[in-house]
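Archive entry. Fields below.
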Amino acid sequence: MCTVCGCGTSGTVAKIGAESAGASHAEPHHNHDHYPHAHGHSHLHVHQPDPAPEHIVEAIDFGAGPAGGHAPGLSQERMISIERDILSKNDAFAAENRARLRAEGVFALNFVSSPGSGKTSLLVRTITDLRDRCLIAVIEGDQQTSHDAERIRATGVQAVQINTGKGCHLDAHMVGHALDHLSLGSGGLLFIENVGNLVCPAAFDLGEAHKVVVLSVTEGEDKPLKYPDMFAAADLMLLNKSDLLPHLEFDMSACMAAALRVNPHIQILTVSAKTGEGLPAFYAWIEARASLMPAPAGDPA
Amino acid sequence: MHEVSLIESVVALVEDERRKQDFSRVRMIKLRVGAIGHAEPDALRFCFDAVTSGTIADGARLEIEMVAGAGWCAECRRTVALGERFAACPACGGARVRMTAGNELSVAEMEVE
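PREDICTED_STRUCTURE:
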């Protein structure tokens, strides 16, 4: 039984992963390649697009590092030239995720920010406003806890929590696992909420259509210059918590100039997840970008 | 500290290579790292031993070859040195500089037996 959430008991909550360290096993239901890692989970849940009132909680724990075998024996000493990009493994998984999402007609956004910028609140608000228009699912990344996924599920949509353990970012392999637990269908929206971290997630393509960087106006206008990789990797910047602007000395134009300096192509919207200010423009952006996505193979439209 | 993941990826690449070429031990791994990229060489070194422990790369020596940052300045119409990723052109001060080197992150070669 899971000691975190009590799965395996009569409760409504079942959590994949978590604390059962060492329960490593192979998983026949995944259709992508693996590199070695340990899994703690014991079975697969299938989700329906319209979840029942009693949600099944899922989390995938990637706290365990890679295992590898040490092969004894001797052979001749030699140099091998490899010249392979270190991120090539991740990028291959990302390409697989992207192809899969495209084939299913799902538009995916990867939300990145520092902790506390309001990503989850922004998603909750967005889902509440858009859930009658399309199917939405969320993949939540955090080092620990299922708090964010629970907040998302309270809106009535599917959410899978990935716990990265010591990991500071989601990678494409983790997201591939999470996709196995979601069903959306053509026209669906997938929001991936990355681990709160303005550095590491920039380097990892997850297979999303776009990275969206969320910066709250309480954080300081020079963040794009201090953490340029993230703002360079994003296609959209949401300046969140605009309702707090009257109480702050936040130089909006300096912040926008900083973002545009590291990424001349970044689009910027000012929003408030609390009041809803600016969100219609964000929804219009989603709609416009999703409509640019290539049609799934075999779809005459 | 995504350098831990990067070294895990290096181990996975070495495992790939072992499936293609017969070797039982890795003595040295040379990485090529861009000076103005997102990976910090000291952090790579810091976690290398811990991450490779118990893997095919256990006991290997890590070498890092740094690649200096450079960019193409559209004003000067030549390659200029870049000390940071979004720096202005050191010659003309213009901002129209496209990074051409310094973002590398690869496994260059390794010594095996």
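CURATOR_NOTE: Residues 88-104 of chain A form the longest helix (17 residues).
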